[in-house]
Amino acid sequence: MEALTFNINGGFVEGIVRGYMNSMLTATNFQALTQCETLEDLRMQLSATDYGNFLANEPSPLATSAISQRATRKLVSEFEFLRSNATAPLNKFLDYLTYSYMIDNVILLITGTLHGRDTHELLDRCHPLGWFDTLPALCVATNVEELYRTVLVETPLSPYFRDCFSASDLDDLNIEIIRNKLYKAYLEDFHAFCQSIGGSTAESMGELLAYEADRRTINITINSFGTLLSKAERARLFPSMGKLFPAGNTALAKADELDQVKAIVESVPEYKRLFDDSNAGSISDGDASIEMLEDKMFEYEVEYRINEFVPPI
């Protein structure tokens, strides 16, 4: 029944999304890009794709920073076009997608304030997807307490800050603890919103957000080894959701080494592949193992996102 009325509100936006997908670079395009020896070669290869105008007006010599800026600008432009044409509940869903970028932007400004930096200079480093109209107002704050009050009033993140911190916490807590507490609140809120929509949104986003929660839980565990963070404090940073929750979270809160993390995470069948190529002894080798694990977690997420997008009929 849902499919019968879908096109009334969602048909146009879905058509745009599928158009975006069809304009993405193909495996053949990427293979051609691997043969490029200079950035000018890359520009030439892209000229034969839907990215033909992507760098056309960029002066030579082409810089990698210019490519990054153009790519980000294209992404933001397309996203904002979708959001401006979306109706409820899609418009709220798209808002939620920007909150993670907002968190990173606000954390950047908090860090600058804590270290006495000119926060106006940091605005240029903020991700445009996490930009909101009152973000520059945060730069007016001259101390952490003023910044806290401004965040509570001026930003969409105010519920997360209000529920997680007091102004004094911003002075006392490590900045990464603040970030993880905000992400915990954000993921749980986003998950509840998706479940309230129901249907395929609840199913597909439930899986994706559960994985994101588990990934953060694993990263928090590993990154807390050898630090002053207590096991009780570590547990409080874990999102209360995911395939590892609750038993896996409880076990990870008590873990002391990477081998224990491996054993706990592998209790979830879907996550065994994260350690498939790791030799039994290499998981304890330190930074190299952690970097390899993070790469695999990223690959898993990308693969899941691709599979969730139903190809055009």
From TrEMBL:
Under Gene Ontology molecular function, one entry of this record is: proton-transporting ATPase activity, rotational mechanism
Q: Does the keyword Ion transport apply?
A: yes
Q: What's in the keyword line of the UniProt record?
A: Ion transport, Transport
InterPro entries tied to this protein: ATPase_csu/dsu_sf (IPR036079), ATPase_V0-cplx_csu/dsu (IPR002843), ATPase_V0-cplx_dsu (IPR016727), V-type_ATPase_csu/dsu_dom_3 (IPR044911)
Q: Which domain of life is it from?
A: Eukaryota
Q: Name one GO cellular component term.
A: proton-transporting V-type ATPase, V0 domain
The name of this protein is H(+)-transporting V0 sector ATPase subunit d
Lineage, please?
A: Eukaryota, Fungi, Dikarya, Basidiomycota, Ustilaginomycotina
